[in-house]
Amino acid sequence: MLGATGMVGQIYVQMLSRHPWFEIRAVTGNSTVGKTLGEAYRGKGHVPEKYADLEVLPSDPAKIDADLVFSCLPTKAAREVEPKFAAAGFPVVSDSSAHRYLPDVPLIIPEVNPEHLDLIDVQRRRRGWDGYIVTTPNCTTVGFALPLKPLADDFGLKHVNVVTMQAVSGAGYNGVPSMAILGNIIPYIEGEEAKVSEEPRKILGKLVDSEVKPLDITVDATCMRAPTIVGHLEAVQVELSRDVPLEEVVASLAGFTGLPQKIELPTAPRRPIRVFSEEERPQPRLDSDAGEVPGMVISVGRVRKGKRPGTAMFVTLSHNLIRGAAGSAILTAELLYALRRLD
Amino acid sequence: MLGATGMVGQIYVQMLSRHPWFEIRAVTGNSTVGKTLGEAYRGKGHVPEKYADLEVLPSDPAKIDADLVFSCLPTKAAREVEPKFAAAGFPVVSDSSAHRYLPDVPLIIPEVNPEHLDLIDVQRRRRGWDGYIVTTPNCTTVGFALPLKPLADDFGLKHVNVVTMQAVSGAGYNGVPSMAILGNIIPYIEGEEAKVSEEPRKILGKLVDSEVKPLDITVDATCMRAPTIVGHLEAVQVELSRDVPLEEVVASLAGFTGLPQKIELPTAPRRPIRVFSEEERPQPRLDSDAGEVPGMVISVGRVRKGKRPGTAMFVTLSHNLIRGAAGSAILTAELLYALRRLD
Amino acid sequence: MLGATGMVGQIYVQMLSRHPWFEIRAVTGNSTVGKTLGEAYRGKGHVPEKYADLEVLPSDPAKIDADLVFSCLPTKAAREVEPKFAAAGFPVVSDSSAHRYLPDVPLIIPEVNPEHLDLIDVQRRRRGWDGYIVTTPNCTTVGFALPLKPLADDFGLKHVNVVTMQAVSGAGYNGVPSMAILGNIIPYIEGEEAKVSEEPRKILGKLVDSEVKPLDITVDATCMRAPTIVGHLEAVQVELSRDVPLEEVVASLAGFTGLPQKIELPTAPRRPIRVFSEEERPQPRLDSDAGEVPGMVISVGRVRKGKRPGTAMFVTLSHNLIRGAAGSAILTAELLYALRRLD
Amino acid sequence: MLGATGMVGQIYVQMLSRHPWFEIRAVTGNSTVGKTLGEAYRGKGHVPEKYADLEVLPSDPAKIDADLVFSCLPTKAAREVEPKFAAAGFPVVSDSSAHRYLPDVPLIIPEVNPEHLDLIDVQRRRRGWDGYIVTTPNCTTVGFALPLKPLADDFGLKHVNVVTMQAVSGAGYNGVPSMAILGNIIPYIEGEEAKVSEEPRKILGKLVDSEVKPLDITVDATCMRAPTIVGHLEAVQVELSRDVPLEEVVASLAGFTGLPQKIELPTAPRRPIRVFSEEERPQPRLDSDAGEVPGMVISVGRVRKGKRPGTAMFVTLSHNLIRGAAGSAILTAELLYALRRLD
User: Fold this and answer.
1) What value of ipTM does the predicted structure carry?
2) What is the pLDDT averaged over residues A210-237?
3) Of all helices (H) and strands (E), which one includes residue D259?
4) Which chain C residues have a beta carbon less than 8 Å from that of B7?
5) How far does CA B279 lie from the centroid of its chain?
6) What residue ranges define each of the domains in chain A, with the CATH number in brackets?
7) pLDDT tens, D227-249?
8) Is A232 one of the catalytic residues?
């Protein structure tokens, strides 16, 4: 695990401390090198006893022995460090945005586009690497891009408008000062809207001739920061290719499953989307932890038709640190393992 | 003032305690009848000394002597009480939704549709009242319906999508339990979306032959409750009749004024809309109080073009208790006074 | 379970849904009679599937078949209903304050004064009941009365000053309006300080000749409400009978165990008190869930000596709904069962 | 103004923008040197138009022309910079803790110990400065040290125990991450308790032979951070030299005035202490702004006698940025001006 000592790193450590397939061999950090994980997290959360005494190492491939590397490095560090690990033969699964938009780097939601993993071969060939880099989306993208998949498949998709209310944990432990957000909302998150507008087009795109052809949709986004701890809540309006009865929209969402469900990956929920009929749900504090592995289910509610034919609206909630980061990466790693891409 | 002892009532009392034209003659309440205003507000806020000793009366027209009646009664009580006052000869300016949608009752934002006040004559004639009822919009409607006015006038308007994050004060002092909202967002407010979808069509409509012809637009709304004290923040996407350069949209919003500005009503801000260029504004805690009379200016920010031609996006913030209630009603009363409709 | 549909009721249901000894046979309520538990909790929390379909009954002994009754009724209802159940032969374990201060009713913290259960015989004899009432303390009392026990035993105790910052869940779901507490603290909780000052004297008292002789200490309390969800945090200053080195105070607290630990009751933590050495702990959001059964361990931190000889200071945190209510009652019931008082 | 660009700096600028005697001639900063004040505060608050275009200068005495210098520098910078200004002939009024505890530096609450200003002469003589340094107390100290003054004078004071719940603004804009404090309380503030225990002894001390003889009391403190924006709320227990009826304690507090009241300094409230009889007050959100100049009055409530004779308890609230920093410094400067110590 590279960059293991931040907010997301903690979640990885917790999830991996009870994982049936994976075990943490080493953790790396920056300012905390030389400390134990327990010391690095002091005052900010809990470390499972199992890993409390792991020493934080520098992010150097020569010092690490592992079958797979998770990276939750900040963008700039990721840009530098991840290729070194890939070149040194490590499969790298990264939450960082550093390489997400490169044409030969797969951007994966395991339920949505597992076939994009074939880009790995393109990537290795083109770059001459023994290892490779696979990326997961921005924490805000996952929450609505996953529910878009069944809608795009079943009814066709033309346009999306998303307004997000994002939890402070999404900005890292020191990211949002309390003076900025207590009793307040900030209607802007630097760099976020561009990511959120672009990523779904790649994720929902088709792999044609070793290249992802983006889905032909437009995505407008307004990203806000709200005084919640975890759980990105998003109000989504979609324009479908045709007018569809409400029940069909609900059925499409609620019934959706993908490859991780089919091959029963350990971190995959039985159903990745839960659809609430209660109007006052989902709520970040009550519902972010949904799922057999808590935080892996995306909660959708308030599914309604818009005033104009062919439009539908819903609210979606996802655990930004789990389904939006660590959980997605672990599920992606399970997929790589199951598909024999770690051998 | 009818129903003076709630959250909005307090704001009225504060605003009227320093008003150049109006003075409170009597306040009415329900469970607090017989107490003084000071006692009725105990523990929930401040009462200006000037009015602290006013006795709370029952809402009975026979007991009240005033040139105008403000009503912030709950819907059910308003439905019953307001017509009694209108029949007894009082001009009633009401924040309640009870009569807002009746064809002969004007629904007024003074900067937007002062000409709708001509409905007063229709109303009096039809109902045989000496007095009349004039209403102000839902607190959430004002925040985006006012900025829609210049856009509709300058560019034509076809569709609106609004996602709101509403402060807890909008639900009354006891409306939102802390258990429900601390560190949380509730993606639903009962009855709100129907109001928010319907009211702008009437407000922006044309008065033709003694009748309001609603503006031909569709409004989709998602209304949420957020852990903020005051200030409804709203993310708006509009579809205009034609593609317009961003600067023109900004200029249209920032330059807008209406009749209250022209005739310099005391509670009217010099410019009803302030447009921020800073991306991280407006924010409820910093900007709700904007304006020469605090809370009367609507703050707009993040004005952008959408991905599709002819669409624009912005964020709007309004003080839900002032511009969204007491302030709008007082400004409407000033308009009635200036137009000699209180004689 | 009497009064099962409030905040505390929900916790009981969750805890009992995975309890090794107990099973819920029936739940009672008031306004929700006839609904299922699932419906009664709608929008306020989760019900374990196992009990979601239980029908809410009225609180009538004739309709209930159970070996033991938990009561989390409001005080007034408890005063009336609990004696009926006791008279009808039910052992009643009550969180309510209704009977807590009666001389023949035991007020129990299982680790502190299990021997007070002998009052049951006095109670039955005096009142001619087949059943009996046993009570648990106020949620705020438990947090500091339990740590006082080892200090009183080891060093003698003369005076206590406690300042509390209590979570909003302690007042019930609708107890604290968000308008009152968002970004605020309320320095008063009705009726609380009297309870908090009196209860430790009874709990720490000696049973002599079928009567509890209160411990001869004075307790000064200032009880405040803070914008936290769960976890009552309390700053405690004690005056001991003699000057004691800091390490002895820490050792006394950290080493404390009682009868529930000795006989290994299922809900008993291995050590009821955890002592933090990190200065910035315990914190409500991080530490309220401490314990093998989450929420049963009381977290103590910042143990220091005061400026005057013989004084010590510490901060204590307890989960107000678990160790402060449902968990204490369940542990008490386990004790009754283990001591063969349910036969 | 030195270090004008932080949280407290903003308050100074606002207060001085409408001050009858003082005007800002120059502001200094560190990372914002070269910007205007308006740019330096962007996104964090408002700057009065009057001072928005002031350029931020480096903290160099050679570049500043002023009759008095306010310093709200961080401790380390203050230690270095303030003596330079004093040596260069400037009177320096400082909020910083850097020189507060030096025997020849007065630590002033204008209502409490104006006579300590005579230390200025000692200081100048000893250090050979043309100017001098006067300091104001820690923001937490003011809130309870001021109310202690009448109690010490009227009844004698032996011991104080204070538990504080401090607003996040006290730590500076970036001081408390939202992840740390949302829905949480942190029972520790680094370095705070030592200051809070020591300062009242100096402030309440007597000036004897050019030296402050500290008041012979002990102060125990527990300092916590709470999720409030402004207003430090403190629960105080005092041990007086004799048992005093409650009404006398209340009268002593409510009736207290000092020199600033007598000579009617512009920022002095008519009465520095307001005593609430309502049990649920004072509250940070409702009462921090108390006073003719908002934030200069200290609100006291819940005055009660303790269980032991001679003890009394109360709760005190002070605006940590105004009475706790900028306001105290401005009032001190007014005192210096009135006493002709700026000539």
Assistant:
1) 0.95
2) 98
3) helix D259-262
4) 179
5) 26
6) 7-138+326-338 (3.40.50.720), 140-319 (3.30.360.10)
7) 999 999 999 999 999 999 999 99
8) yes
